[in-house]
Structure formats: structure tokens, C-alpha cells
């Protein structure tokens, strides 16, 4: 049985570029989107965690979708992050994203209030019912404060428009169970699980590190698809030092990406220090040269 890939295989959790005066930089967003696609990204996920969605306005989110869609054309997947703690607001953002040109929705568990599982399920169903777009559930308990339980995922998989999961649980056992029992397309949301999840039937990944090395993040999956698992493992190991520094150094991935790209973050995030930028640049240089 082939693995379903409703949003492609190699997706980038794209940053949201800002200018020095903290306004949305749509020109930079277009340039970055075009570059990422040229370097092998099948899709772009906008306004997620890496996209600083808690600090962008509804109007900025819509403008970003429109600009990126216009830039990359109709054949590239543009998935809009629409999750908020409020079901009503999430529905509004979902409809706005559909109108702006997104062809998929990323919906995180309703965070902060920590609702029980039946309420989490109801939230996702309500959002999925609100538009005609396919939905990728975003399971990131470390940020949301609530996990999407395995039994909840099995039930949610019965909804026609709930087609995928971005998995940031690092729970390979639970993910493997759901992959084996449903048609949900699993996307790794943590670089260290990109290849392990892919090997057990995941569809691909949604990567923060892909903002800076998109082709190198895709390479292990390409090798795996060719049946060369040893080469896939070798290529995966090559990217680990940079991925670890970008994602597990104590700084948010948004900060480390923007440090390498020279793009401002929005408060409450703060830019990396000079020493941190130097360490990131060294790891990047070691990988690409």
C-alpha cells in the first residue's frame, strides 16, 4: 500500500519575514518562497510555530498566504496555520485562509486552556467542517499543553477532510500505531524523527531547518526512496549537528533560522546573540562547504 501524501513530502515550516521596523515583508516572503520551492520543497507551511503565528495579525496571515500563493503558483502546496485557543477564531482564520488561496490548513490543538480529549476532537471537527480544505492536525503537546490522544486520532481519521498529522510528540510507537491503523498522512515535525518516521510509513516532514538547507533536508528521503537506506542514514547524520544547534540549543527555531538569514524576529522573541550567530554560522558552513 502506498503512503498517502496529500501535501507532498518535503515541506518547509516557513518563517514570516519582517522589516527592520517590524512590518510584514511580503517581498522577502515571495523571494524566500520561490527559493525554497526551487530547492526542492513540495509545500510551504505558513503561520505555524516557526512563522510566529501568535504575534501576527489576521490581516497579516491572509496577506502572507496571498503573496506566497501568487509567487509559487497553483502546483505547490500552501498550508496555512490557523490554530488558536478559540474554536470560533480558528474557524474564522480557516475561512480566511481558504479565500486567500491556501489549499490546506494546519490546526494545532487548542492551547493554554488544556481541554479534555472529547473537546479537542470537537474542536478539530468543527474547524474541518468550516471549509472545503483538507486539514493537517498539529500535535505539539510541549507548546499546546495537551496532546491529541491515540484513540482521538483514530476517531478523527474518519473525518473526510482530516487527512494528515504534523507530529511533534517524538513518540515513535504511538505514531506507528496510527500510521498502521488509519490513512492519516504523518509528517514529522521534529528534524530528528524525519527519517525514522519516514521509514515506518510517514508521508514526509514539515521542517524548520529547511528554511536554510532545504535540499539537504530532503536528501535522506530521496535516498530512502531509491532503496539506499545506508546512504539515507549517512545523509541524515550529516544534517544533525546543524539541526541540533538550531532546534535544541535553548533558542526557538524561529530565532535560529532568522539569525542565519539576517531577518528580524518579533517580540517577545529576541534575536540571537553575536556568539550564538557565530556558532550557527560555523555549523552551517561546515555542512554546506
Automatic annotation (TrEMBL):
Its EC number is 4.3.3.7. Pyruvate binds at residues 50, 206. Pathway: Amino-acid biosynthesis; L-lysine biosynthesis via DAP pathway; (S)-tetrahydrodipicolinate from L-aspartate: step 3/4. It catalyses: L-aspartate 4-semialdehyde + pyruvate = (2S,4S)-4-hydroxy-2,3,4,5-tetrahydrodipicolinate + H2O + H(+). It is an enzyme of class 4 (lyase). GO terms for molecular function: 4-hydroxy-tetrahydrodipicolinate synthase activity. NCBIfam families: dapA. This is 4-hydroxy-tetrahydrodipicolinate synthase. The lineage of its organism: Bacteria, Bacillati, Actinomycetota, Actinomycetes, Kitasatosporales. It is found in: Cytoplasm. PANTHER family: 4-HYDROXY-2-OXOGLUTARATE ALDOLASE, MITOCHONDRIAL, DIHYDRODIPICOLINATE SYNTHASE. Belongs to the DapA family. Homotetramer; dimer of dimers. The keyword Lyase applies. Catalyzes the condensation of (S)-aspartate-beta-semialdehyde [(S)-ASA] and pyruvate to 4-hydroxy-tetrahydrodipicolinate (HTPA).
